[in-house]
Amino acid sequence: MDTIELNNGISIPQLGIGTYRISPDDAQRSVKHALDTGYRLIDTANIYMNEKAVGRAIKESEIHRTDVFLTTKLWPSSFSFAKAKEAIDASLNRLGVDYLDLVLLHQPVGAINQAWRALEEAIDEGKVRAIGVSNFTQKDLEKLLESTDVVPVVNQVECHPYFQQRELKEFMKTNNIALEAWYPLGSGSPELFAEPILTALAQKYSKSVVQIILRWHVQSGHIVIPGSKNLSHIDKNLDIFDFDLTDDEIALIGTLDRDKELAGMPRIVRRLIGLARPDFNAQPQLKR
């Protein structure tokens, strides 16, 4: 499994399994199977309501805890200093682990700075190894970086061949923030899967279009977490490390970029929780 070194020196596997919209029973089964077949990166979140199941799968797998890179996320309802600390402890309890490898702020809304300060303290306390964010735009990242010396190790965002996040990636590269892709397959878009460039590459390498897209992610330096409850799909998603796309082929896939979201999660969430933008300025500065 290929890995990426994060800006704090910790290595993260480039390919993992996500558990978004997967029921507890299916999550336990999928994560257990993934770990048994070679996956070592597991992504969950408080809001997914399957942390307990993920924890059970890790224990059942008998893979040593230090060999599993475990990520969870805090929902904006926990974005105060005290609530964020409580939420971290609650996730540790639900997952049945002594520490978390990575904790993300799930959305760029609410009391960002208070929650970030709680994550920083969790690192100092040994409860968390690395901290990052999810769904942050460049402006969101700029605001956070103005108020802290602890740079997020990752920003987990929607990313796929139709939405390649070029400008955001360039900013993140400058600040040594890794891109972690959710919806890496464009939510299974039939239009994307039928793209002639991708189908031709799939035929050339005797792979599926899904495997071509995942290989493009890995060679583009992304961390990628496709979710599935289909055990065969989980196996096939892992089978992408026996070939390399050429530079020209990577460039061809680059031409598919439409700068088009297929989910638009941040805007949806902002409407749901009734917040237009993050409330950075209301919070104290977090210089360490």
UniProtKB/TrEMBL annotation:
Output the superkingdom of the source species: Bacteria
Which Pfam families does the UniProt record give? Answer: Aldo_ket_red (PF00248)
Fetch the Gene3D superfamilies from UniProt. NADP-dependent oxidoreductase domain
Q: Name one GO molecular function term.
A: oxidoreductase activity, acting on the CH-OH group of donors, NAD or NADP as acceptor
Keyword field contains Oxidoreductase:
yes
Where does the chain bind substrate?
A: H106
Ordered alphabetically, the record's keywords are: NADP, Oxidoreductase
InterPro entries, per the entry: AKR, Aldo/ket_reductase_CS, NAD(P)_OxRdtase_dom_sf, NADP_OxRdtase_dom
Per the Swiss-Prot or TrEMBL record, the active site comprises Y48 (proton donor)
Q: Does the keyword Oxidoreductase apply?
A: yes
Q: Where is this site: Lowers pKa of active site Tyr?
A: K73
Residue limits of the NADP-dependent oxidoreductase domain? Answer: 15-254
Q: Which family does it belong to?
A: Belongs to the aldo/keto reductase family.
Q: What is this protein called?
A: Aldo/keto reductase
What's the source species for this entry? Alloscardovia theropitheci
